[in-house]
């Protein structure tokens, strides 16, 4: 009984996987169309979905994680050649994903660099504040010296 239940559950899960992927593709197409893209090309891989879309002479390329919908990579460039004049929607499939583990690591490193750059800017602001405090303390010391000089007279 348990074996039958497990194999039925596995069969149902496998049967619904393409439907879920298609649903994600439909959502991506609908979203891009709502943003005014006139040509959309979607390619479904085993674990990722790649969407290329053109609007106003600009080509947008995005790669999504099929399971989570997370955008893994996004690029924009000038639409050239047939991309610039194409209209409509094309959906295709591929046996391979579009980003491998190395590409994913590079994307993570780029995000880390951006975060580090932000932290560095914040650190610079703190350093500036510390310098301002040091200047204020020096000004206070100078005023104290003037008071001492006045008492000697």
Please tell me about this protein's structure.
The chain is globular, with a radius of gyration of 29 Å. The protein has two domains: about 1-95, no CATH class; about 100-153. It has helices at about 1-35, 80-85, 100-150; strands at about 40-45, 50-55, 60-65, 70-80, 90-95. The chain is about 60% helix and about 25% strand. The protein has about 150 residues and is an alpha+beta fold.
Summed up:
By secondary structure, the chain is of the alpha+beta class.
State the separation between the terminal residues, measured CA to CA.
Answer: 106 Å
Largest sheet: 5 strands, mixed
Kindly state the percentage of residues in helix.
Answer: 55-70%
Which structural category do the helix and sheet elements fall into? alpha+beta
Q: Please, what is the oligomeric state? A: single chain
Task: Indicate the topology.
Blueprint: H1 2-34, E1 39-44, E2 48-55, E3 58-65, E4 71-78, H2 82-85, E5 88-93, H3 101-152
Parallel strand pairs: 1-5
Antiparallel strand pairs: 1-2, 2-3, 3-4
List keywords for this structure.
five-stranded mixed sheet, disordered N terminus
């Amino acid at each position: 009984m348990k074996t039958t239940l497990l194999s039925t559950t596995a069969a149902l899960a496998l049967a619904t996987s393409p439907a879920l992927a298609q649903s994600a593709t439909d959502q991506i197409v609908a979203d891009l169309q709502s943003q005014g893209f006139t040509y959309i090309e979607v390619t479904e891989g085993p674990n990722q979905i790649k969407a290329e879309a053109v609007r106003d002479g600009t080509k947008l390329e995005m790669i999504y994680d099929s399971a989570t919908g997370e955008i893994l990579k996004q690029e924009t460039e000038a639409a050239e050649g047939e991309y610039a004049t194409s209209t409509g929607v094309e959906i295709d499939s591929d046996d391979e994903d579009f980003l491998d583990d190395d590409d994913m690591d590079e994307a993570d490193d780029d995000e880390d660099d951006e975060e580090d750059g932000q932290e560095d800017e914040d650190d610079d602001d703190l350093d500036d504040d510390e310098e301002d405090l040091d200047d204020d303390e020096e000004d206070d010391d100078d005023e104290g010296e003037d008071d001492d000089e006045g008492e000697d007279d």
